[in-house]
Amino acid sequence: MKNQSPYKILLYYKYVHIDDHETYAKIHLKFCESLGVKGRILIAEEGINGTLSGTTEQANAYIYAMRMDPRFTDMTFKIDDAEEHVFKKLYVRPKKEIVTMNLEKDLDPNHITGKRLKPAEFLEAMKDDNVIIVDVRNDYEYDIGHFRNAIRPDVKNFKQFPEWARKNKDMLKDKKILAYCTGGVRCEKFSGYLVREGFTDVNQLKGGIIAYSKHPETKGSMFEGKCYVFDERIAVDVNFAEGTKVVGKCFHCGEPSDRYVNCANLSCHTQFLCCEKCDEKTLRSCSKECEEVIRNYQIQSTD
Q: Helices in the chain by DSSP H: which ranges?
């Protein structure tokens, strides 16, 4: 019998109205502190979006308590095993939106959103010739892994997607649009935005990449590379059907690499893909300027 992992990682969200979300965020912080979980939880008037880690007992207690609240009774938790915490700290923050889109007229995914496709349905839809697969994540998330033939939108953050959609309206029109993200929360809003803008065949992957990777009928099929995650793991394997292959490229030399590192220049700290050779050669710097700063610091430290 397989030994149970001592820790669990929870990924979840729910679009649901939360009265006085700032007060609720303070209450939720104290609740999480009492359990001993760590992670990042955003709370807005429109709902909750979180990922956290804790012991199996702590994670189960969190799920049980949340489902006792009528607002979150049916909230889906995506659960991964872990050997330890994947977060160093706990953040519970009130926000204007649980995913920032900054629309002049906000939308509620409970009222308008794209068609939610189950993993097996999404897999079949990707095989259609008249589809456009849109990766609704940041560029650095795409670079380390994505669905085969998916578009890499030229965006740095989620709030740039409406402008990107407007600029690429001709490319998207008359196509079956398949949108996907890590856990589903960003697709809910982006697909809703597309529907409101008049696109007629808008679809999203229900549960995102994580649910797709765990589904027995799909097992992550057609996903190339690794899935970026916002914790200390940085990226995880999700294709259990065909296996994982490296699609990322070292920022410096262009060789295959799925190693994300942070620039050693603390005033920069940019995250980038870097192979081990270039890591050593450049002192883990993202530019010549940062490399010079690091070298100067090392010289001063030895004086």
A: 21-35, 56-68, 119-126, 139-144, 161-167, 169-172, 185-196, 208-214, 276-281, 288-302
In the annotation, is 32 catalytic? no
CATH architecture of the region 115-236: 3-Layer(aba) Sandwich (3.40)
Mean pLDDT of all residues in 210-218 = 97
Using one digit for the tens of pLDDT, what is the confidence trace for 16-70? 999 999 999 999 999 999 999 999 999 999 999 999 999 999 999 999 999 999 9
pLDDT exceeds 80 at position 170: yes
Quote the CA–CA distance of 91 and 103 in Å, as a whole number.
25
Q: Which of 32, 181, 227, 250 is catalytic?
A: 181
What global pTM score does this model have?
0.93
Please give the C-alpha separations between residue 39 and each of 89, 129, 299, in angstroms, as whole numbers.
6, 40, 37
The domain ranges of the chain are: 7-94, 115-236, 260-302
Q: How far is CA 226 from the centre of its chain?
A: 12
Buried b (16+ CB within 10 A) or exposed e, 96-115: ebbbebeeeeebebeeebbe
Q: How far apart are CA 303 and CA 155, in angstroms?
A: 44
7-94: CATH class = alpha beta
Residue 303 pLDDT grade (very low, low, confident, very high; cuts 50, 70, 90): low
If one counts every other C-beta atom within 10 angstroms of the C-beta of residue 4, the result is: 8
